[in-house]
Specification:
about 45 residues, mainly alpha, 2 helices, rod-shaped
């Protein structure tokens, strides 16, 4: 069990999770920026 937690950084799944998290953050940020632009354009 200790080896499982000690080598999770070596597993590709950790990198995949980081990529997915970064993608979600960038998508959320892009959506927020688009919403702000639409609000400003509507005025």
């Amino acid at each position: 069990m200790r080896d499982h937690y000690g080598t999770w950084r070596d597993q590709p799944r950790g990198l995949a999770c980081a990529v997915v998290a970064a993608f979600l953050v960038l998508t959320t940020a892009a959506f927020a920026v688009a919403a702000v632009v639409l609000v400003l354009a509507a005025r």
